[in-house]
Specification:
The protein has 557 residues and is α/β, with parallel strands linked by helices. The chain contains 15 helices and 27 strands. The structure holds ligand 4UU.
């Protein structure tokens, strides 16, 4: 029997994101509430400024490019306070946002631009070389590239988004109507359980549901006012806005709750401490590597972090030992959240006041959701449900489950059933207090410090290397990195064997070759191991479990 959330059901309004954020009747905070602040320059947006900038841009989108419902704007930028008004402008005009990792190579960005069928691209001056090359590769005209951020194009070829206006002045446009439950608001990229990155179609309703689910899970603890200076909660936003964690939990939850989001374009441990101290940050969304630095880095002792009330860690596993070390060092609670791009993302949260009673758990299922735990028999026949409390693969159903993968019916059918059950690829159990513990991951996905590394993508590149005959990539845990890292198992080609190079030289060559091909989080930090053959099933599927067991054995000796 599926297990229902232990929270009371929430009512999710049937509106689009724009109405939810900017036309709500119960907004508790005023128009001039500061919402987004640039940590370095202190430039900021109030609630009204986000709304008005977005609306002006939206008129510009319609006037300049005849923006239509479903048209996609891709974003290729580090975190910027301009991102929220840019995104809401696209929503006003009925469009879709597809955010890309700002460390992508030309090929990686071009893949997403093409796959998402982007009609325009927003970037920053410093990133123009990659953005232009990717646009050129897929035939996106240069005048569809626009800028966000503080810097303007010195040669004035590329417009800033605030200059994309309705120049005619007189023409009036109406807000484009969308169906909140059926129309896509975001196309974020995830490899899901298998294969290459795919566009995860998140509807307006998905995002709205998740903002409300997360608020309820947090017992409405985050506030727009109150605290010592009556400024309410202040969140430090260094986790990337292109990833669903940053997108929903920082931007959307922020603008709905009215808390101040202090935006850092890039993470640095000392800058983190400086900003917590100077801005009196009260809450931070983090990932396990940040918890590790806060627990171990000497610089942390130099700063006053006492304004922090709580941190939420997610996107990768966090050990009990680390929570204990870091929370006792900096005297701050650390709770966990869990979820996926496909679930908008939050499906589980450790309740605020229970963080130290259930360390190691990723929390309780959020409101309006159901979960079941399944096991797939060895012969790959239909999965069967395991009894309550036993370990199984987590399946979930609820209003925050995505619509499917963009133009990829087969992949959608592989993880989303007709009656709404979504297969996560994560394995664990739920105890009698409704707390969920993750014990394993059965999908291909590798997570380097919370960033997705799809093995199929690396394998697809590596087979083109002349030193490689066959290859499989898996994740192995590295103490040094405090994270999983990708490792390639390679069958050396005849050419490589006849070259006379040693295994270790050839391994270095392959690792270095990959450097130029992929964003830095996908590098082969786990190295290369040579094998005689890649273990495969009769149907030709790579048996990753065999390689994982081999890696484990190697680690133990
Ligand atoms: C062990 O990483 C995410 C979503 C992260 C997130 C973070 C804080 C959600 C809610 C929250 O409060 O999405 P994806 O799509 O990049 O990766 C999803 C995968 C999961 O399937 C799981 O394998 O990331 C892993 N994961 C975690 N693993 C996510 N959160 C956790 C976690 N512990 N807390």
């Amino acid at each position: 029997m599926p297990i229902k959330s232990s929270f009371p059901d929430l009512t999710i309004p049937n509106v689009d994101i724009w109405s939810f954020m900017f036309e709500r009747k119960d907004r508790p905070f005023p128009d001039d509430k500061v919402l987004f602040v640039d940590a370095d320059t202190k430039r900021s947006y109030t609630y009204a400024q986000v709304r008005d900038t977005a609306q002006s841009f939206a008129h510009g989108l319609k006037a300049t490019w005849n923006w239509k419902k479903g048209d996609v704007l891709a974003i290729f930028s580090p975190n910027s306070i301009d991102t929220p008004p840019l995104m809401y402008g696209v929503h006003w005009a009925g469009g879709v946002i597809s955010p890309a990792n700002p460390t992508y190579t030309v090929e990686e960005l071009a893949f997403q631009l093409k796959n998402s069928e982007a009609k325009a691209l927003a970037t920053q001056v410093a990133m123009l070389p990659v953005a232009r090359a990717a646009a050129k590769k897929i035939g996106l005209p240069e005048d569809r590239i626009i800028l966000i951020g503080d810097q303007r194009d010195p040669e004035a070829r590329f417009k800033h988004f605030t200059s994309v206006r309705n120049l005619a002045g007189t023409a009036r446009y109406r807000r484009t109507k969308v169906d909140p439950a059926k129309d896509v608001a975001y196309l974020v990229y995830s490899s899901g359980t298998t294969g290459l990155p795919k566009g995860v179609m998140l509807s307006h309703r998905n995002i709205i549901a998740n903002v409300l689910q997360a608020q309820q899970g947090d017992a409405y603890n985050l506030k727009w006012n109150g605290g010592p200076d009556n400024q309410g909660d202040k969140i430090l936003a260094f986790l990337p806005f292109f990833h669903i964690y940053g997108l929903t939990c920082m931007i959307h939850a922020g603008i709905y709750t009215g808390y101040e989001v202090v935006v850092m374009p890039k993470f640095d441990i000392e800058q983190f401490c400086v900003h917590v101290q100077n801005f009196k940050i009260t809450y931070a969304f983090v990932a396990p590597p940040v918890v590790l630095l806060l627990g171990k880095h000497p610089i942390v002792d130099k700063y006053d972090l006492s304004s922090l009330r709580m941190m939420n860690s997610g996107a990768a596993p966090l050990t009990r030992e680390l929570v204990e070390t870091t929370s006792s060092r900096i005297k701050v609670g650390i709770k966990q959240g869990y979820g996926l791009s496909e679930t908008s993302p939050t499906t589980h949260m450790q309740p605020w006041n229970e963080w130290d009673k259930t360390i190691g758990s990723v929390g309780k299922l959020v409101g309006n959701m159901e979960a079941k735990y399944m096991t797939t028999p060895e012969d790959d026949s239909e999965p069967v449900e395991v009894p309550a409390g036993q370990v199984g693969e987590l399946y979930m159903r609820g209003p925050n489950i995505f619509l499917g993968y963009h133009k990829n019916k087969k992949a959608t059918e592989g993880c989303l059933s007709a009656d709404g059950w979504f297969r996560t690829g994560d394995v664990g159990y739920q105890d009698e207090n409704f707390d969920f513990y993750i014990t394993d991951r059965v999908k291909e996905l590798i997570k380097y410090k919370g960033f997705q590394v799809p093995p199929a993508e690396l394998e697809g590149l590596l087979v083109n290397n002349e030193l490689v005959d066959d290859v499989a990539v898996i994740g192995v845990y590295s103490e040094d990195h405090g994270s999983e890292v990708p490792r390639a198992y390679v069958v050396r080609s005849a050419k490589s064997k006849s070259s006379g190079s040693s295994d270790s030289d050839e391994a270095d060559n392959i690792v270095r070759w990959m450097h130029s091909k992929v964003a830095q989080h996908k590098r082969l930090r786990g190295g290369v191991r040579f094998v005689d053959a890649i273990p495969k099933s009769v149907s030709g599927k790579i048996l990753r479990r065999v390689l994982k067991d081999q890696a484990k054995k190697e680690q133990e000796t």
